[in-house]
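User: Last request for today: this protein with phosphoenolpyruvate, please.
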Amino acid sequence: MIVILKNGCTAEDIDYISIKIKEMGYTPHIIEGIEKAVIGAVGNEKNQERLKSLITVPCVEKILPVLQPYKLASRTTKNEDSIVKVERIMIGGGNFVIIGGPCSVESLNQTMAAARAVKKSGGHLLRGGAYKPRTSPYSFQGLEEEGLKILKTAKKATDLPVVTELLSDHNTDLVASYADIIQIGARNMQNFALLRAAGQSKVPVILKRGMASTLEELLMSAEYILSEGNYDVILCERGIRTFEKAYRNTLDLAAVPTLKKMSHLPVIVDPSHGTGRRDLILPMSKAAIAAGADGLIIEVHPEPEKAYSDGPQSLTPDEFSEFMEEIKPFIEASGKKMSLR
Ligand code: PEP
Ligand code: MN
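Assistant: Here's the final one, the structure of the complex with phosphoenolpyruvate:
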């Protein structure tokens, strides 16, 4: 249920109603909109009748059920686009971001070269996995804590905040202490313990769509993070499994406008994993921008031919620089502006 408050409600009013909601066994989630505040009351729906009695409180305007199973992520609960902020960077609400960097952190030199390339071409954040989810246990698994330290060094040198993957809830505190944004990978989209841990970390999260997951399942996974009180969730379309073999995955761009109708959360697109082919990154990025994406996450490697993972889909620094120039007019035409950085 959502409790919609009248214009001009005070912080005391919000506290008072939140206490009442808690007394009825629900968790209140305060969502401050531009015009009015809303309190989401999340919990066992059996006692809904009791919540409806809050209409007698003078500053309450309306109490409505949220029909979608994803309550806090839905447009019913919050109609305005959410904006996730990382330092000066804004993601969503008309602000566009570019995240670039290698698939895996392999060495200080490799990560620094990628970070400098991303910075020089106008990217906003550096990506790089220190813990890698690999199909084979014999493939490179990441440099782990050493990789996190390398990302920190690259951040210091370039001023780019970092996005890195959290693979296990056991090292949430460690990864959260280095990450400006935690990535939850496609394979872990329904790792519910991990989602809860990312929610409790309070670090912004990029949640990638599982390769066989529906949009509703993606939003239910976002709901795990939101329901822990972490409202900084960015959804990421990264391609799904289909029968088509010409590319690594089928980048489902219809997901972008559909998710934006279903939810207020920002939506970014990963054409690198979505296609697995560097020649498709530019056209699919243009299409993603046209579909309404709030940002792109692109793999960039100083020497893709030597990459420990995902070399064939990685852009070189020169290719990335050209890519950035090519997409700028498309971002402008979409009505969005590049975020500050
Ligand atoms: C990655 O970003 O390198 C990655 C492994 O992504 P995904 O979880 O989408 O496969
Ligand atoms: Mn990768």
